[in-house]
Amino acid sequence: MGFFSSLFESRDTKKRKSHIKNLLSVAASDGNISNAEVNFLINVAKRLYMPLEEFKSVLEEPQYVSDYPPESDRERIDQIHDLVCMMMIDGNIDEEEVMTCKIFARRLGFKTGIIDYMVDKIIEGVARNMVKDAILNDVLRSLS
């Protein structure tokens, strides 16, 4: 794919690819990408209606994918939720993965003062098997 062809991609394509690249980074941050993590990546790509070739291009050449944060708080929190789910999918919460989630929260435009609370709140909600929308709404209220 490469850098130049990415100049002509739609906003939605750029957001999808950026999100999958970020999830891939969290999956790899503990030094191992498990089958469960690969399956989670595939499920997120399907949820985002990402074509298979686009998905493969991110996996094969993540270095050509630019960061492209969504505009709305809801979408950004949704992405953090996915990052936390990826981090927790293997049943272990590795400190490197937690730090990676917090770095991405900052890159997505969240202020430093809210990131620890937000990531901890999402971890707590996922651990308690809360419905995703309930977690996102709770975090959104805390941003107000």
Plain-language structure description:
The chain has 144 residues and is an all-alpha fold. The chain has one domain (3-143). It is built from 8 helices and no strands. The protein has helices at 3-6, 11-28, 35-47, 52-60, 73-88, 95-107, 112-127, 132-143. Helix 2 runs antiparallel to helix 3, helix 2 packs parallel to helix 5 (73-88) and helix 2 runs antiparallel to helix 6. The model has no long low-confidence stretch (mean pLDDT 88).
Structural class: mainly alpha
Task: Please state the average pLDDT score.
Answer: 88
User: Between the first and last Cα atoms, what is the distance in angstroms?
Assistant: 40 Å
Contiguous helical run count: 8
The percent range for strand residues is under 5%
**Helix and strand succession?**
HHHHHHHH
In percent, how helical is the residue content? Answer: over 70%
Please report the total strand number as a whole number.
0
| Assembly type | single chain
Low-confidence stretches: none
Shape: globular
Taken together, the total number of domains comes to 1
Described by strand count, sense and barrel closure, the largest sheet is:
none
How many whole angstroms does the radius of gyration measure?
A: 15 Å
